[in-house]
Amino acid sequence: xxxxxxxxxxxxxxxxxxxxxxxxxxxxxxxxxxxxxxxxxxxxxxxxxxxxxxxxxxxxxxxxxxxxxxxxxxxxxxxxxxxxxxxxxxxxxxxxxxxxxxxxxxxxxxxxxxxxxxxxxxxxxxxxxxxxxxxxxxxxxxxxxxxxxxxxxxxxxxxxxxxxxxxxxxxxxxxxxxxxxxxxxxxxxxxxxxxxxxxxxxxxxxxxxxxxxxxxxxxxxxxxxxxxxxx
Length: 231
Known about the structure:
The chain is of the alpha/beta class. It has one domain (39-64, 81-230): P-loop containing nucleotide triphosphate hydrolases (Rossmann fold), CATH 3.40.50.300. The protein is 35% helix and 29% strand. The chain is built from eight helices and ten strands. The chain has helices at residues 3-6, 52-60, 82-92, 108-118, 123-136, 152-163, 182-197, 209-212; strands spanning 8-21, 24-37, 41-45, 67-72, 75-76, 93-96, 170-174, 201-205, 217-222, 225-230. The strands form two sheets. Strands 6-7-8-3-9-10 form a six-stranded mixed sheet, sandwiched between helices. Strands 2-1-4-5 form a four-stranded antiparallel sheet. A hairpin with a 2-residue loop joins strand 1 and strand 2. Helix 6 (152-163) packs parallel to helix 7 (182-197). The longest helix is centred in the last third of the chain and has 16 residues, at 182-197. It is globular and about 50 Å long. The two termini are 22 Å apart.
């Protein structure tokens, strides 16, 4: 690993991703290169279908590239097995999905606790941290409610609290305000601003002008390629 890579939280080199569809391959990402230092706020923009979600999924280890190298927090994710990737995500990566991905049969508090239970955190630590996180996102009055009883904005805030449960070094958010009204969108933007102030490394796929103003780096994708990159 070079010094440049060693200083990076996320280092992506010659990344390509293709999906097989019938007799043909659909190229989603083509020769993407990216180098992100600790504490940077990165905005990924581009039209629908440009590869934004796929890039986030690969950086988190949810998906694998067809070729290229992906080094996250010093780990080459392209050579790891699924068990390692699952544990790595839980311990180091907070992912806020576009459509929340909350567990419908768990309450707000139980959804937030889930990553800590997966990581086998002590029960006393879980009991202390869950109320703190629920309060941070302003949902202490909803702690025992189920996702179906919440608005979209409330579900997104629960998704943020869950993503922060294990105090991850890297936070990824996919269109976090895309399905929200202006009021709830501003609450999510405030949370992102707080995380930036706490020097978390953050990737956000978004078209939201307010979130884009927070960017230290902007990566614009078009047809799977990097159309422009500002650092």
